[in-house]
Each structure stands twice: as structure tokens, then as C-alpha cells.
Amino acid sequence: MDGQLIAIKRSKQGSMQGGLEFKTEIELLSRVHHKNLVGLVGFCFEKGERMLVYEFISNGTLSESLYGIKGVQLDWSSRLKIALDSARGLAYLHDHANPPIIHRDVKSTNILLDAKMTAKVADFGLSLLVSDSEEGELCTNVKGTLVGLHFCMALQSMLIISILSFKALVMQGYLDPEYYMTQQLTAKSDVYSFGVVLLELIVAKPPIYEKKYIVREVKTALDMEDSMYCGLKDVMDPVLLKLGGLQGFPRFLKMALQCVEEVGPDRPSMNNIVREIEMIMQDHGITPGSVSTSSSFSVDSTAKKFVPRFPYSNTSTSSTTFEMDSRAFEYSGGFPSQGSLQNNRNT
User: Fold this and answer.
1) Catalytic residue among 75, 85, 105, 123
2) Which string of b and e fits 258-279 if b means at least 16 CB within 10 Å?
3) How buried is 45 (Cβ within 10 angstroms: 0-12 exposed, 13-18 middle, 19+ buried)?
4) pLDDT exceeds 80 at position 326
5) What's the mean pLDDT in 245-269?
6) Which domains does the chain carry?
7) Which class for 282: exposed (0-12), middle (13-18), buried (19 or more C-beta within 10 A)?
8) Is 2 assigned a catalytic role?
9) What are 74-123's pLDDT values in tens digits?
10) Integer Rg of the chain from CA
11) Please, are residues 309 and 261 in contact by the beta-carbon 8 Å criterion?
């Protein structure tokens, strides 16, 4: 396309996404324009083909950079900038898109990094369209087996959400526990998932690793009397410990933990998160640092006893069964392949 690199998202044959849902995705994507959202370039919808064409994001996913797959080391200032970029993209969806949009699938594999390491939020095409009067609530069934898209009426508006991501959110550790229990999806559900991503920026491990849950591990190790590491030295990414320069770390951690409060009203809004990260960077004179080309690595922490909260327990996540196939789409270009995502989960 005029020499522009692109990434194509192609619907697989037999996908459960129907024509109406695909058209809704196109309409939604064409409405939103923000530098921290992956931009839609074009689409194809004919002769059984359904393809979305996006701008190419050259540095892949945040998870690939954090877990060492991309061979980079992110310093603290770079991670703050990534957090700020991502928060701005989500805040735009929540408060400035018309109608407001709940992403419903916030995770580190849906945050992409361009050539300048600017973060862009991806995969919000089948998100929840929100009526202003309903404050982003959606009633939907939370069950072991979910089929396709669930529709429900909330007073005067029909709210649409893809349940295809439900399996991934549960299995990967991003699911808002309040949503799991109440079946009400709100913007604060995105905030919870984003809080998990913020903890990933600190720990550089998947939310669920070795049958441990990142939120539980951080809360267990927490010691605010430790002014430098807040008790997290044994669970933090060794790259951060090596590079140092953790200005504003206690404030950042406090904000991240507020995001993963179990009750939605106790969590900040995305706009408040944006302002807090901006203040942290401003107060400490932090600017995005250079990115090292060395490989990142991590060490395992020793889990302390903790009474688990539903739905994330000490039992293996494989005990939960789902019949949905989350591989509804194949990706090319700047999007990670399904195989790479599966490898990430297994590392």
C-alpha cells in the first residue's frame, strides 16, 4: 500500500464471528483515532474473506519485550513511558470515543511497541459499546462453556461484547474477579486487567506462572517499609535491579495495586491513572531512556502462604475446562502468531 508496511488480521474459515459482528468491528475501528491505538488502514469483506488491515507495529508485543523474546532490556523510564502510552489509549476508549468503549481484553500481548517504542493498544475491535446512561455495565453469563457472542439489552441500548476472550482472560490471569462474580462488565474491568499489566512491567513474568498468580505474589511480598523495593526485590525483574534508577517506584506500585482492588469502585479511572503516571514522571524528571539490546532474564520467587481469592487459586488452571477455541483469527505482520503466544504461555 504505497510502500507502507501493514499487518493483516484474517478471519479463519469456520470462525464464529458472523457478518454483522465483522461489520460492527469495522465501524468501531473506523471511529477511533489515537496515537496510542493501533490504526485500521483498510479491510476486505467479500467472497467469504474477512480481513482487517492495520498499520505494521515493528517491535511486536510488550510481553515479548518483557520476557526476553525480543532480545531487549527495558529500563524503568521506558516501562513508565509504555505504561503511560497504554493508559492514554485506554482512557481515550473509555472517555473520548463516541460511544465509549470497554476494551474487555487488556493484556500485555495486546499492547504493541512501534519502532520508537511507543505503545499502542490493539485488538479492541470486538469490544463493548457503552451507553453513557449505563456506566459501562453489561449482563452476560459466566460459564465454563460460552458460545459466540452474547447479546443483552440494558435499558435503551444493546451492548455487544465478544466472549471469545473470556477463556484467555481466565486462563492468563487478567480477568476482573468482580466481573467473574457479578457478571457485570464495566470500565473498571479494563482497569483491573491493566493493573495486572502494570505488575508485569515490574515482575516481567506472565500473570500466571508456575501455578502462581502475580497479584497474589506481589501482595504477599509487599513491605512498604522497604523504601527502595517495597519488599519486592525477590520477585522483581532482575533487569530492573541491574539497571536501577527506580525513581517513583513506590508510587507506581501503589497505583498498580489500586488497579487490582477486588471491588471496582476502589479502583482508579484510566484518566486518573494517566495523570498519576504523568505526575510520577514529572516529579522525578524521568524521560524515556534508551533500550538495551541484551537479553532479559528472570528468576523464580519463593511463594509465601496466602489464602487465595476466587477465581485464581493454588490449583492448576488446567482444571477449568472450556469448549471455546480462542484461535478465531490468524495474524500476520506486526501481530504475534498463535504459536508464539502459546509458547509465551508455556514459558
Assistant:
1) 105
2) bbbbeebeebbebbebbebbee
3) middle
4) no
5) 97
6) 60-326 (1.10.510.10)
7) exposed
8) no
9) 999 999 999 999 999 999 999 998 889 999 999 999 999 999 999 999 98
10) 19
11) no
